[in-house]
Amino acid sequence: MIRAVVVDVDDTLCLTESACFDLENEVLRRIGRPPMPRTVHLATWGQPLLDAMPRRSPGVDLARFAAAYRVVLGRYVAAGRLDVIPPENLRALDRLVAAGRTVMLLTSRTESEMAHLLAPDHVLAERVSAVFHAGNTRHRKPDPRAFDELLAATGLAPHQCVYVGDSPGDAVAAGEAGLRFVACLQSGVRRREDFEARHVDLFVDAFPEVVSAVARLEQRP
């Protein structure tokens, strides 16, 4: 039986690449840096933010960027411009829970980037049983050890878990850790041919399809 569905955040649970591109360019403007091209943002999307920024803005002062980013992030969240989870995705989480699945999040974001999603009054609070991020895991995707803390904390075996993500790095991490993987293509940032077939069990075009995809995987030997 598939006991846990583990979900990535960016461009999986909610669509964020476009908003993050605008947000990060606003931060760069505030610290006197020129904007990055969209092509560079897309090419580095999925990497931890501060790992990606030297390529997105060569020579950037990461400490200044991080300080300004925290301010702009708060404003984007408050204005409903980032991390808005569509109602249909929340209903999909409810259906997974109703089917007896444990729902967890696993992301490469830092704890401060996740703070608003971790709030006790957030819509995820009653739907998600645990959240694993850069603050409570030792390794980042595509390293398969990104799942070590999750598996240790829950006592689940890898084959009892499905990871849902949007990037080839997500697929590699899950596949090499022994988890099944569902690739969500809703953002349009990636296509099927971007993934190695051996690391993907199923593709879905929209997040709510995850419910039926997990049920189908459970029927496989």
Automatic annotation (TrEMBL):
**Matching Gene3D superfamilies, A to Z?**
HAD superfamily/HAD-like, Putative phosphatase, domain 2
According to its record, what are the GO cellular component terms? Answer: cytosol
Q: What GO molecular function annotations does the UniProt record carry, in alphabetical order?
A: phosphoglycolate phosphatase activity
A Pfam family of this chain: Hydrolase
Q: Which InterPro entries match?
A: HAD-like_hydrolase_sf (IPR050155), HAD-like_sf (IPR036412), HAD_sf (IPR023214), PGP-like_dom2 (IPR023198)
Might you name a Gene Ontology BP term for this protein? DNA repair
Q: What is this protein called?
A: Phosphoglycolate phosphatase
- Source organism per UniProt: Micromonospora narathiwatensis
